[in-house]
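Fill in residues.
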């Protein structure tokens, strides 16, 4: 009488893992350089999420959680930004209360061009002129989903240019 041998669970699991992991290990070897791969990308610095108040007619109508990325010029060291990040974040929040980054058509997003322009001017002051090439708003998440303001009812106070 012959006995049938059935593979154990461990053997099946090991075989499945080796089949999945084999291509990953094979591709992790020496890669050929493609054209343009030798160039270094411009460094970026990610600012963590900040809470920006949206103020209309002197009252806070909503908060928006904003995440931004600073695109640095080539040759700028990212490590130098870590020490000054709290100062930059503080300046952004203070400016958001003084001259709000509120849009007149919605209370779910900040006024992107005004906010990025202010952050860029603060970066030039804190880190040195020309070290930050651009500022990009990566994510905006409103705290509350509100109806858009009525036409002419929502006027953000001091919507002019920001002077740090």
């Amino acid at each position: 009488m012959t006995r049938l041998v059935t593979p154990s669970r461990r053997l099946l699991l090991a075989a499945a893992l080796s089949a999945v992991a084999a291509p990953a290990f094979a591709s992790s070897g020496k890669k050929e350089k493609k054209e343009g791969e030798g160039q270094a990308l411009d460094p970026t610095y990610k600012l963590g999420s900040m809470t920006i108040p949206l103020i209309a007619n002197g009252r806070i109508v909503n908060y928006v959680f904003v995440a931004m990325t600073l695109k640095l010029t080539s040759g700028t060291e990212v490590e130098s930004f870590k020490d000054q990040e709290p100062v930059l974040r503080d300046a952004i929040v203070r400016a958001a209360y003084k001259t709000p980054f509120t849009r007149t058509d919605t209370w779910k997003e900040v006024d992107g061009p005004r906010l990025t322009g202010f952050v860029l001017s603060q970066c030039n002051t804190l880190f040195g002129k020309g070290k930050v090439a651009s500022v990009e708003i990566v994510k905006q998440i409103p705290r509350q989903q509100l109806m858009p303001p009525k036409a002419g009812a929502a006027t953000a106070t001091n919507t002019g240019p920001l002077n740090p």
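The radius of gyration is 26 Å.
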